[in-house]
Structures are given as C-alpha cells and as structure tokens.
Design a protein that fits this description.
Layout lengths: L13 H14 L5 E7 L2 E4 L2 E4 L2 E7 L1 H6 L22
Antiparallel strand pairs: 1-4, 2-3
Length: about 90
C-alpha cells in the first residue's frame, strides 16, 4: 500500500479542485482508491470555533469497485479546473 498527502489551497474552490485532482489520479491509474475532501473556513463565536461545512468523497477505479462489491453512487465522467483570479471584469 502506498499512501500520500496532497494539499491544494484555492480558497472557496478547494473542494472542487481536490475532487477533480483525485479523479484525474484514479483515471490515469496512478491509484485505485483515493479520499478527497475539504473543510470550509472557520469562524468564531465568543471563544468557540465553528466550521461552515466539510465533506469527504471516496473515489475508486471502476473495476476495483466491482471486485470489492462497492456500491457505486456516481461516475466522474468529466471535470475541468479554471481560475478567475485575474479576470478583466
């Protein structure tokens, strides 16, 4: 088993970038299974920390999922990444 960690920081679109990057890694057969997710920004009320939301997805290569009897909820057919940090408007 090979394990690793990749951190992508794109402010509000980090979760989308993480999932897209994980889907690409699985699609190119660099991994059979990956966990991808994101936690939203934190804020404080008094002295208590809160998160606005978080989520994790498991992405698995199709044949690998079938062999292990995994329930398939969706298929990543296409993904695209862009940035509008330096647009004219």
């Amino acid at each position: 088993m090979v394990a690793g960690h990749l951190f992508i920081n794109r402010l509000y679109t980090t979760g989308v970038h993480d999932i897209s990057h994980a889907a690409r890694i699985v699609a190119y057969d660099d991994a059979d299974v990956l966990l991808a997710g994101h936690r939203e920004r934190q804020y404080t009320v008094g002295h208590r920390w809160f998160w606005r939301g978080s989520g994790v997805m498991m992405l698995e290569e199709y044949e690998h999922a079938k062999r292990h009897g995994s329930k398939i909820h969706a298929e990543a057919v296409r993904f695209d990444i862009s940035s509008d940090a330096y647009h004219m408007t």
